[in-house]
Amino acid sequence: MADGKPTLTYFPVHAKADPIRMLLHKAGVDYTNELISFADFGALKASGALPAGQVPLWKTVDGKMLNQAYAIIRLLGRQHGFYDGSSIEESFLVDWALETSLDLQNSRAYRVYMQDESTEEELEASKTNFAKFSKQIAASLTERGTTFFAGDRLTIADFVILSHFLSMAFNEANDKPIVATAAATVAETPIIGEYCERVKAQLGDYIASRGAYVC
């Protein structure tokens, strides 16, 4: 812990920590953004310093060490007013968005964005799973016509969804063809691009300062 501030520990990539960083920025939380190398991670894991051997890790001001990215963002969302919707239905949509995002993560679609070489099977699986995610998000936005995903108020669902699109389809730091493929998928449904711009506008200068990483 640095200077009595909470600390978020993760690799120098967006990935699982990006939505958490978005929330902390929007909430105006003063925290330490601790970036560790993969070698550092290995040493920390071997030492037993990481709960369940995982990052991201959220260290609270009173010394608690919390893991699991979506549990962390739900906790912080509750603390700062970005979790619960204004109705039971909106709260369902927040959780639905997180579960749908987790499906994308668990499909390992991100792997082809990071590794030097990928098989045709891996590339096709990534394209398919990203297209599935995009279609689901677009359908939900179209059906309800709200400003943000769960309603007319920003929630953690928006941070999680935006992070996927920024890393996979709108990522100038990654020159792999898969990024252009994902961008073309998004271009087929303009409502996604429009939605992403609305969420980005809520984050001020965070988007420009969040760093250039491959994912």
Automatic annotation (TrEMBL):
GO aspect biological process, one term: glutathione metabolic process
CDD domains (alphabetical): GST_N_Sigma_like
Organism superkingdom: Eukaryota
Residues covered by the GST N-terminal domain: 4-84
Xref: InterPro entries: Glutathione-S-Trfase_C_sf, Glutathione_S-Trfase, Glutathione_S-Trfase_N, GST_C, GST_superfamily, Thioredoxin-like_sf
GO MF: glutathione transferase activity
Protein name: GST N-terminal domain-containing protein
Organism annotation: Favella ehrenbergii
